Amino acid sequence: MDNPNTKGQSALATTASSATDTQLHFLDYWRVIRIRKTVIFVVFLLVVITTTVVTYWLPKYFASTVRIAVEKDSSETPGLFEFRPTANSYDPYFIQTEFEKIQSKAVLYNVISNLHLSTKWAKKYEIAALDMTRTYKLLKGRLDVRQYRNTTLIEIKVMDEDPQEAVDIANEIAKAYGEQRRATKMKAANMGIAQLKDDLKKADEQVNQKLAIVNAIRETNQISDAVADGVQTSVLETETIRRLESRRIEALTEYTKMDTLHKNLASLSKPMLRNVLPRDWPDTNMDELLRRLATTEQQLATLDKDLGPEHPDVKRARALLEKVNEQIDTTVEAIMRAIQVRVETYATDYKVATTELDVVKSNDIFKGKIYGIYALAKRDLDMERQLRQTLAMKITQENIDSRRSYNSIVEIIDQAEPGIYPVRPNIPVNIALGVVVGLIVGIGLAFFIEYLDTSVKTIDDVERALGAPVLGVIPQNVGALLEEGPDSPHAEAYRVLRTNLLFARKNEKANTITIISGGAGEGKSTTVINLATIFAQNGQRVLVVDSDLRRPSLHKFLKISNALGLTNYLLKQKTLEEVVQTTSLASLDFLPSGKLPSSSMGILNSTRMREFIKEVRLRYDVVFFDSPPIMGVSDASVLASEVDMTLLVVQYRKYPQVMTLRAKQMVEKVGGNLMGVVLNNINISQDSYYYYYSGYYYDYYSKRDEDGEKGEGKDGKKSSSSKTPGDLAKLDVKEK
Description:
The protein has helices at about 5-35, 35-55, 95-100, 105-115, 115-125, 130-140, 165-220, 235-265, 270-280, 285-305, 310-400, 425-450, 460-465, 480-485, 490-505, 525-535, 555-560, 565-570, 575-580, 605-620, 635-640, 655-670, 690-710, 725-730; strands at about 60-70, 145, 155-160, 225-230, 230, 410-415, 470-475, 510-515, 540-545, 580, 590, 620-625, 645-650, 675-680, 735. By secondary structure, it is of the alpha/beta class. It has a domain at about 460-710 and about 720-735: P-loop containing nucleotide triphosphate hydrolases (Rossmann fold, 3-Layer(aba) Sandwich). It has a nine-stranded mixed β-sheet, sandwiched between helices. A four-stranded antiparallel β-sheet has the order 2-3-1-6. A two-stranded antiparallel sheet has the order 4-5. Residues about 1-25, about 225-235 and about 710-735 have low confidence and may be disordered.
């Protein structure tokens, strides 16, 4: 089951790695620029110098500018219902259109002819003859037309080697353009007037046709001119319709009211009608009967109480009461019949009024149709007359306008004048552009060269291509640590390599190491001697074996004779004690290669060599074997297969990654144990990418040295810590 803390740490590590990748990605660009700064500077310098020379070599051109105000184009003969646009009417395409007109052949051909430019330029440029087309192209190439800022004015700029000729051409272009505009407007105006006259003739014909139609309708239907705008103005017919409509509405209202009253009363009983009728239908007789009824009922009640029901007076009162009730019922029936009669009367009045109104309306509709046809025909006639009159006025106006001057169409605001200083080539702009282009081309070329360079550049390149870890990063210009001393800033890089190597080995008993490289000159010998020095300074017994039998070099670092060495031991000429040398470090021994006979080229691939490796593995804590390049000599492959560990030295930016990959594959094929890669000869001053791997130690030890120099005793002598590295590493080489 996964640990939650482990998952969290993994997620944080992934996030941090992603952030670092992004940061290094941007640093890579700066790294390429710093490394390729020479290429960038050379290309930049070449481009700037070339631009400057060409700029000063080009012929000088002077500019003359004429500024004109152009009246906006409008229809020379606007339509009847159009208006002439004012000068302030804005058209975003007007100025651009005029630019093209100024540069058109219609204008420039006249300029060429008036100034005889074909002949002048043929002599000037020593050409046999220039036709109009070629002269036009030359002139257009020297012409620049643009809008003056924040105005509607147009600037016509002409450039020429002769300042006066530029003035003449600019002024002539403005003049020719104005004449061309005036001619165009006059032609358009004359065409517009001719078209208006044709329209006037057609209008006269239309008026005559409409007049004949109106006369025919009036005579046929006997219509007077009391009809206007399609509406009949007869007061009698209108008043009759209004009166009949009012009567119909009144009859309908009374009928509706009486019919509703009758229906409501008919639905009531007789006792209820006695109470309701006095309110809805007042009647004097009904009121009198109701009073008598109330009085009789009151008397009957009194007599019946005092005299009894059989008394004659009571019987007379009861008979009188019955009689009054009969009279009331009779009156109620009479009133209901009267209401019914009134309903029927109003219904009849409504029907009569409706019938009369329908008859009058039918007559009015018929007359309205006739009058409408006549009114429409008369209106068409009036419109044709108005149109004809408008056309006649328009022709008169255009005839007057056509006689006015068109000098204001193109107005020259500023005449062209000779230029004082040349405007082309623009030296500051050209040089500035050369600076920018040179910088861009230089940086682009630097990145292109970097793209073509397939050598090892970064730790990521090594680990991605080889699939092996980088155990150490060694800076440039590293010397022998035996001479520089243990406090050398370079020593810390090898201490890091030693620490990584010890952590990388899986078997603690593995103590034989060979250091190989893909090609020659990658620094494996320096790495061997310095790494061995670091192990020895740590108190371990170390043996360095120069097993590069063809081109031995370690004895030169240690200043030891190479007369006797490994070859003498393998050929059984000397014992091991006789060929092993000691150095000033008590724990560091050295075995030179010795002289290699031509008959013993494969001596490393021998039983004696394997026995030698077993013996020194037991005698020493760590044994280092220098080797030739693995790509060209088989000795390196033999050593890699026999020793416990192999380190691959790769020099920064020297050989293609393919060679390094091939070296790794050769180690794996022979069964060697490749522990990792040492990236050598890094120029930290140029490549800030590696500063955090090695540069820190320089700063650290420089600071320490400064502090050591200040650490003098009271007697004015320096302390022992201020000794130079050379004082600590005086060699005392002797045979063991």
